[in-house]
Amino acid sequence: MMSFTEDLLVDEPLDFIAPHLPGLTDNEFWAPEQAISRKPPESTVPPKTTRVRSLFLSDLHLGFRHSRVQSLLEFLNRYEPENLYLVGDFIDGWCLQSHWHWQAECNQIVARLMDLAKSGTRIRLAIGNHDNFLRLPMMLRLIRQCDMLEVAEEFHHEMADGRQFLVLHGDQFDHYERASSLTVGFLSLFYEGMLRVNSVWSRVTSAAIHGNGSFVTRMKQRLSSVARHVSHYRNQIVRHARHRGCDGIICGHIHAPQHIEIDGITYCNAGDWVENCTAVIEDRDGELRLAWL
Ligand SMILES: [Mn+2]
Question: I want to staple 251 with a disulfide (CB 3.0 to 4.6 A). Which of 79, 99, 118, 170 is the partner?
Fold first, then answer.
């Protein structure tokens, strides 16, 4: 007899999944009309789960006040992936000392990940700059003992169609990360200030709190320095993928989701769960696409 969960599993893609976005210019992070947050209609029926080959989630920043944990939980409950990659900045260790904000949803997210692991999902975590405390030998031992996920600097992933991809967070290709700690601290404060304004702006004007219509994304799209930064980062990381002999790379870090071909290399940035609420999905046939919640 088919179980309740199996009965709910469907193969059809959900309607809020954005199509592949070819040929974006440096000043565009994503296709504006298609990226506007489209929430599925409210329903009392439990959400259907979709089986996919792989799910790539980056920059969850659990513990950070502005992490969109409710949206993330909603998204995680919709998928049953064979492979789940957490592409860095899973937990925001930078907030541990002063602004730690562990909400109830964070526990539910961890519980959902544990359920997925128990039901056969292989979970791999690439370490990012905000969760570099996971590099501590004690943490690595603890994670190994839990036997729930694998942790590494980067992973090699073979797509269903045979293409070879590198999966890593990507902070080592961000030249701002090599700036003085004073500059990095100032940029972090400035970013958090923008996110605070974003929250207030969203409440006052009913504008989207995440995605293309949000205040923070609009501001970033207007700043040419941000566009240059994204472009430089992208070029560096694509060069790294080529050097490794890969067909493509899946990364995160800069909170700018994008799926694009650059000189024969697929660049796929999974985005984040602070500004954009995005993920990269690999279907059973090896097709990659960017999804927005
Ligand atoms: Mn990062």
Answer: 170
Low-confidence ranges of the chain (pLDDT < 50): 1-38
Q: Are 155 and 125 in contact (CB under 8 A)?
A: no
What residue numbers bound the domain in which 281 lies? 48-292
| Residue at 120 is within a domain | yes
Q: Give the strands of the sheet with 248-251, arranged side by side.
A: 154-158, 164-168, 248-251, 265-269, 258-262
End-to-end Cα separation, the chain, in angstroms:
33
Q: How far is the CA of 9 from the centre of ligand 1 (A)?
A: 33
Model confidence over 100-154: pLDDT tens digits? 999 999 999 999 999 999 999 999 999 999 999 999 999 999 888 888 899 999 9
- 19 in a structural domain: no
Task: Kindly give the distance from the C-alpha atom of residue 89 to the centroid of ligand 1, in angstroms, as a whole number.
Answer: 6
